[in-house]
Amino acid sequence: MKHLISLGLVAMMAAAPSFAAGDAEAGKAKAAICAACHGANGIAAIPGYPNLAGQNPQYIVSALKAYKNGERTSAQAAIMKPQATMLSDADMENLAAYFAQMK
């Protein structure tokens, strides 16, 4: 029985990172500039740009931090680095929560 409870706790802890830690409403307020390339509904308006609607929130945060830190050097990095540089960690979490909850 103890092993079953322990297994359940481990499963819950493993699932916890899949929930967005940010505030989706605050993210919505910050997302206006994102709409120019990623679409007002999170579906990219420009071919080759990623859709953000329904995206994994950890991926969004990780990508934004990588752009901000200069770890991403793709063609989009020239556009994304200045955008990401203006964001705090909380802003990134909020944006991730907002886009993750979109269908």
Automatic annotation (TrEMBL):
Gene3D superfamilies: Cytochrome c-like domain (1.10.760.10). SUPFAM superfamilies: Cytochrome c (SSF46626). Residues 1-20 form the signal peptide. One of its GO terms (molecular function) is heme binding. Keywords: Electron transport, Heme, Iron, Metal-binding, Signal, Transport. Residues 22-103 form the Cytochrome c domain. Pfam families: Cytochrom_C. InterPro entries: Cyt_c-like_dom (IPR009056), Cyt_c-like_dom_sf (IPR036909), Cytochrome_c_Oxidase_Subunit (IPR050597). This is Cytochrome c553.
